[in-house]
Design goal:
Strand content of chain A: 5-15%
Strand content of chain B: 15-25%
Number of strands of chain A: 4
Number of helices of chain A: 4
Largest interface: A-B, 34 and 35 residues
Oligomer: heterodimer
Distance between the termini of chain B: 47 Å
Structural class of chain A: alpha+beta
Strand order of the largest sheet of chain A: 1-4-3-2
Order of helices and strands of chain A: EHEHHHEE
Radius of gyration of chain B: 19 Å
Radius of gyration of chain A: 20 Å
Number of strands of chain B: 9
Shape of chain B: globular
Number of helices of chain B: 6
């Protein structure tokens, strides 16, 4: 599976106009010593392969969660012989969770500073209820979407991305699930 | 026309029918004058857009009669015959008998491989940049990135479903050399197959603004006694809102296979 995102450039707001002040200052410093390459139509050339190495998950320092099936029950990341775990055995080998402490601490959240998702109470309750029913899965609806090879959302997977540019659009190709 | 397309894209069948009825098959058309072809900024024929084959090759790349759920069709193999080695001809027949469950692509949601991805009854998008061409297929989000930098195929890597594609321009034709396949895809629903020594050379020739002549030369010394070739027109999806949608094959397959599974609490 491949996620392909085509971002239309028509009518878009220049990204610099939306950047936080701190980012703008840092960008300005960097720009003094580096001139980005340009595409033939004058846009910054960001084509190439990218990866978000080192970011294990969204939240940092997530406390051990007694209902976190990934940490407490290895069945959730392996193929149960009856095929009813979150990773049905016919659909793959499961995944390898980050087991090194440093890997688990890395976070992709930059705001809020504590890097903890600001769950609404009701939504957090739904999440926990889901987790409580996913190992073994109560039904197909409680099998992780990731385990079902559903699209992961933008920039969620650990696989690399390739960015291509053509006049009028930027194309982001994701290796994950292709 | 509805039968040609199959149920999976029934929602757009009516629109596609209009295209089919009003257009002259591209293969019958002489290539457009060079000066009239739409071109990219670097002067290459502009293949950007969403395309789709309108034939029955996904069911069977050879001439075939209709069956329940299978529209009859004229083959896309030049001369109609595929030069199988004797053992391979027997295996093809076995594949055909078991096709409903054994087909890696429609039966099990594996990537369709090349050239099958081109004539699945799903659209695909060509994204053309000066140094790369990418082809994104609606079916299972299959993807190919085709380097145009004259780099060679990699050595020593395991085979893949979609192979490794390296492209070059020969005049107004994009030529794509594809190797490094595994042996886990078929050419169609009828069990035509290959080994990991499959070698495909595709040719994409823009014949006018809305048609591509697609040709694929195929060789596989493990399976065939000689090379063979397929060809077909590809049609631009010209709807104003044309876009690739999501066909989550594995997800749907799980719904089917696990719908009565004894899940536990």
């Amino acid at each position: 599976m491949t996620v392909i995102a085509i971002v239309s450039l028509a009518g878009s707001v220049p990204s610099q106009a939306q950047a936080p002040a701190a980012s703008v200052a840092k960008t300005a410093d960097t720009a003094k010593s580096w001139t980005p390459p340009r595409t033939p139509d004058g846009q910054p050339d960001i084509q190439g392969f990218y990866a978000r190495n080192g970011i294990q998950g969204l939240e940092a320092n997530v406390p051990d969660n007694p209902i976190d099936p990934g940490e407490k029950n290895p069945l959730s990341v392996s193929n149960r012989p009856d095929g009813l775990g979150p990773y049905p055995r016919i659909f793959g080998e499961g995944t390898v969770r980050g087991t090194q402490p440093a890997q688990r601490r890395a976070s992709g959240i930059v705001d809020p500073p504590n890097k903890i998702l600001p769950w609404r109470p009701g939504e957090d309750e739904k999440r926990r209820e889901f987790l409580s029913k996913m190992n073994p899965a109560a039904d197909l609806g409680h099998v992780e979407l990731n385990s079902r090879c559903a699209l992961p959302g933008l920039f969620v997977s650990y696989n690399p991305y390739q960015i291509l540019q053509r006049p009028g659009s930027v194309v982001i190709l994701s290796e994950y699930n292709n | 026309m509805m039968n040609k397309l199959g149920g999976s894209i029934t929602g757009v069948a009516a629109v596609l029918a209009i295209v089919w009825l009003t257009g002259v098959p591209a293969a019958a058309q002489p290539p457009a004058a060079v000066s009239t072809l739409r071109r990219t900024a670097d002067g290459k024929p502009d293949l950007n857009g969403i395309w789709q084959a309108l034939n029955t090759a996904a069911w069977n790349i050879q001439d075939h009669s209709g069956q329940l759920g299978v529209p009859p069709g004229q083959g896309v193999v030049e001369g109609n015959e595929i030069p199988y080695q004797p053992w391979a001809a027997a295996k093809k027949q076995q594949n055909f008998a078991n096709r409903m469950t054994a087909d890696p692509t429609e039966g099990n949601c594996y990537l369709p491989g090349v050239p099958r991805a081109t004539y699945m009854p799903f659209p695909f998008e060509i994204i053309q940049a000066p140094s790369y061409v990418a082809i994104s297929y609606e079916f299972a989000h299959a993807l190919r990135t085709i380097a145009l930098d004259a780099s060679p195929h990699p050595d020593g890597l395991p085979g893949t479903w979609m192979g490794d594609s390296r492209g070059r321009w020969e005049g107004n034709t994009l030529v794509v050399d594809v190797r490094n396949f595994n042996d886990e895809t078929w050419f169609d629903r009828a069990g035509n197959f290959h080994s990991d020594e499959l070698h495909v050379v595709e040719r994409y020739t823009l014949t006018d603004s809305d048609h591509i002549l697609y040709e694929a030369a195929i060789e596989d010394p493990k399976v065939f006694t000689g090379p063979w070739k397929i060809s077909m027109p590809l049609y631009r999806r010209v709807e104003k809102n044309a876009k690739l949608l999501e066909y989550e094959c594995v997800y749907y397959l799980q719904e089917e296979r696990f719908k009565n599974a004894p899940f536990k609490r």
